[in-house]
Amino acid sequence: MQTPDLTALRSRLGAVRANWRGRSVKGRLVVIESDDWGAIRTPSKSALELMRARGLVAENSVYCNDALETSDDLERLYEVLSSAKDADDRPAVLTANTIMANPDFEAIQASGFEQYAFEPTTTTCARNPATRSTPALWRQGMAEGLYRPQFHGREHLHHRRWLAGLRDGDELTRFCFSLGSTSSGRGDYAFMEALDWDSADEVHMQADELVDGLELFREIFGYPSSSFIAPCYTWDPKLNPTLSSHGIRWIQGVRVQHGPTGQAGAYTIIPHYFGQRNEHGQGYNVRNVHFEPVMTPNVDVVDRALAQISIAFALRRPAVINTHRVNYIGSIDPKNADLGLSALKTLLKSITRQWPDVRIISTDQLSDHLHGTH
Asked: Which helix (DSSP H) or strand (DSSP E) does residue 35 occupy?
């Protein structure tokens, strides 16, 4: 086991590597990029209990308490974001990378698992009284400058692999399906790499699905997304032209992109750095601060994040915080949200106290800043 000092040293060295190459920015900028909003995962507390009763390994996943955000989840999140003001006296804003559709379980079952069908995330929300007001809370957060949706994909699901397992009668996948879950019941939540492929022929289908998702995004949120983050940081570069032609000028991610190879678990590693441009003129926004209170419970996540932010600022990079919805969801276990929201509030207060001139902006505002339009 690593000592705390060694863990901290490795974290700081990693932060230096993440920031060593890249475009410089003026001033101190913080961007909070949070993935998975709008996606189903664990449908409910009762579904999780049934998974536990079945002895499924998946219920021990860090995502076991991750569920479609409720109005209560969002209200509590907004309260924390509002508690900190940046140098422009504006509250912290969360870039909410949103999944625009989920499986239509009824239609899939009616087809005998032969045909995949999806529904807009707003339809998924309408199915449950706890999430019925979620779209209205999205709009409220947008109006108050707290919540800025960007595009995360149509689904957070490799639906061709999932459907194949259902069609083949896989017992555990069918059991999870009966609960309204896309889990395979094995290991962590499976099938999440929506843009991975088993055959390169899938790329043109994925392109069509991205266009569907981007159109849903504009319809639901009332504006086009200018940035994109691929589920699990996995996508084929051949999808970049489609994203570019539909308004995506900024690609969120980490230091490496996982390019599909057609072999399970094997990827082409494509490195990126902040401000890098591809042949389509799209810029890469590389996350350089790790903040996952629920996923890393034995780490002082606030102290680590502040150290990584300090390194980013020293090297004249924006501090781009990588965090996921699971940290702020309390409908299955309220203590889950208590942990994440408390840590976020402490982090925001620490940032604004340590760097009074900081500006906390959204991903699309960062893009505007770099292009001189902000």
From this structure: strand 29-37
Cα–Cα distance measured from residue 309 to residue 288, given in angstroms and rounded to the nearest whole number: 8
With beta carbons less than 8 A apart as the criterion, state whether 117 and 193 touch.
Answer: no
Nearest to 77 by CA among 321, 305, 345, 370: 345
Cβ–Cβ under 8 Å, residues 147 and 93: yes
Stated as kind and residue range, the H or E segment containing 363 is helix 363-370
pTM of structure = 0.94
> In 228-240, which positions are buried (b, 16+ CB within 10 angstroms) versus exposed (e)?
bbbbbbbbbeebb
Q: Which of 256, 250, 292, 275 is nearest to 151 (CA)?
A: 250
Question: Residue 70 belongs to what domain range?
Answer: 4-370
Total domain count, the chain: 1
The pLDDT profile of the chain, 374 residues, written as one tens digit per residue, is 455 555 555 656 656 666 767 788 999 999 999 999 999 999 999 999 999 898 886 556 888 899 999 999 999 999 999 999 999 999 999 999 999 999 999 999 999 999 999 999 999 999 999 999 999 999 999 999 999 999 999 999 999 999 999 999 999 999 999 999 999 887 666 799 999 999 999 999 999 999 999 999 999 999 999 999 999 999 999 999 999 999 999 999 999 999 999 988 899 999 999 999 999 999 999 999 999 999 998 899 999 999 999 999 999 999 999 999 999 999 999 999 999 999 999 999 999 999 999 999 999 999 777 765 44
